[in-house]
Amino acid sequence: MRVVIAEDSVLLREGLAGLLTRFGFEVVAAVGDAAALVAAVREHRPDLTVTDVRMPPGFTDEGLRAAVALRAADPDLAVVALSQYVQHSYAGELLASGQGRAIGYLLKDHIADVAEFVDKLRRVAEGGTVVDPEVVRQLMQRGRDPLGRLSAREREVLALIAEGHSNAAIARILILTEAGVGKHIGSVLTKLHLPVSDDTNRRVLAVLTYLRGQQ
């Protein structure tokens, strides 16, 4: 799996490159600013792009804005934003790009297990959506809530879907049966009036509805 890494800190950039190489990724470029990120993605067309949010020259949201622009040009590009904080102004836009597929937003301080982190990167590269729980929580606190028709339990289930959990994992977390989780998910999809399509796509649409509603 070919990866482009964008991180302004030399130590973090080289450390991440070494880690991913150890787990079988091919790091085709490791750059330190947003302009170099855009150039590297255009040159190498990687399977996955991992970028920091704060990048030179302004150290505000350059990396995230570059990711949004890259996804606008290529909605199939798999991107993971890896940051120390949630940048509200572009987080929702990034997560909504490409119909919510092959996208992730993870917080550096919350990564406690390397194997789990690598698994999340692979899931995004394969078209999945993985969002840190803190990102979901902060987006929930902003603006109006269009999901008022959902019950408290249904909102819990939807939040866990947004974090990338499977039905089995949600069942373990909420101490439910998988059948019970399936019923909650079915209710969520029905209440959000999502179109009938394959289950994976409906789950992605549910996540997008959820995140867009929390901005």
Describe it:
The chain is an alpha/beta fold. It folds into two domains: 2-131, Rossmann fold (3-Layer(aba) Sandwich), CATH 3.40.50; 143-213, Arc Repressor Mutant, subunit A. It has ten helices and six strands; from the N terminus they run βαβαβαβαβαβααααα. Strands 2-1-3-4-5-6 form a six-stranded parallel sheet, sandwiched between helices. The mean pLDDT is 84.
Architecture blueprint of SSEs:
Blueprint: E1 2-6, H1 10-22, E2 26-31, H2 34-44, E3 48-51, H3 62-73, E4 79-83, H4 88-96, E5 103-107, H5 114-125, E6 129-131, H6 133-140, H7 152-162, H8 167-174, H9 178-191, H10 199-213
Helix pairs in contact: 2-3, 3-4, 7-9, 7-10, 8-9
Modified residues (4-aspartylphosphate): 52
Domain HTH luxR-type: 143-213
GO molecular function: DNA binding
Could you name the key traits of this structure?
Arc Repressor Mutant, subunit A, 215 residues, Rossmann fold, 2 domains, alpha/beta, 6 strands, 6-stranded parallel beta sheet, WalR-like, DNA binding, 10 helices, Sig_transdc_resp-reg_receiver, transcription
